[in-house]
């Protein structure tokens, strides 16, 4: 329940989505058709994604996301138009939720992940619909999705390399935290720095060409990595230097003039190919989680129907949001969800006088709550849910007025049902493959370390050393992620914790040696 540091770019998704939502809802308000807000909101909420990506990658990712959102809404609306069976619609919503979870995890689209897609498509499953209405409603989704794409791409006109600067700044800040870390904090800080540097290096692959305005960032990252690999005489002073470089990058100043930052052709190779990455993330770890989502979300929706709750899709969404990568994280998310929803319902009751003043006030409150949710989500999930809950109730109100007591009661009941059934699904649908994934990651790390030692034992080009370094960093990051997932899972064979610890220790030593080999080439 403790609060984390605020996200460094929270305002970008917040105000992008708020702009898209305000324009869409404002147009509907002017036309007197706020009952169509579900469809425009589906497209507008796409503006929450992709803000950490460079603009070329962002353009592709958002286009795919908008198409995926439209496809999910299309399936949901078609099902709603073809059947009146609430039980069958719950199943459709649950299967969509499972598919969205698997695809978002596999693609690593980043926050807010699958939950926004599930929130929209689950609601669409229960939207009154005729088959002939589906195409124009999908047209609204695509139109608002296209507008969201434009909103998210617009900053490129002012700061075309802002995302690249931000990802490099994060890597420098993670390096500074490692340099300041002491005692038991060092292993976790080292993993965070390795992951941040690896992410930055892959995100900056397109800047390596000679003459690129940010070509020097590769050398700056190598300088940061070199600081983590060596024994700094004064770690605090080095940390301050890296933090200063990060501030310069974030403020758009000229690239810091540190050692190794002037060489455009830094000897760094790309990470694993996209195809290899997809194969890795479509392997077994996704299957148990997707099955959990399908089973838990459908069971929660059916339980809600059995209890006579008027909005069973809220139970579906709650169960889908509770189910995380492992049982421990799911338990935490359930607690956060219940607390946040309770406080959010209290906030909704307090806002009711303003809500009842008219549709214009509802639109303004929805936009304000959306900004609040994005501002708070990086602090802690439960805190963001305090804003998300009344926002969801307001979106429900756009389709027609409902008694406040009914809305609040249904939401609270579905929250409890979804959280309880989601946790039950974690217990019953076990992820026995989590340790298998750790074993596979140990094997990949062993191979990557052997390749790195071969590079160190014989003369190799800087390019070959860079490829070995990237492969080893990838293996280290994947092992830590796999071990963290397995450590929070239950009913499985024992995690080889000592093997993981030793493999990470040896892997980081080899990585440090490779970095020292590369550092003179970029100096």
From TrEMBL:
UniProt feature, compositional bias: Low complexity: 264-275
Domain spans labelled Integral membrane bound transporter: 300-425
Keywords assigned: Cell membrane, Membrane, Transmembrane, Transmembrane helix
Transmembrane feature ranges: 9-30, 36-54, 61-80, 138-158, 338-355, 361-377, 382-400, 412-430
UniProt cross-references to InterPro entries, sorted A to Z: Memb_transporter_dom
Superkingdom of source: Bacteria
Subcellular localization: Cell membrane
Topology with respect to the bilayer: Multi-pass membrane protein
Protein name: Integral membrane bound transporter domain-containing protein
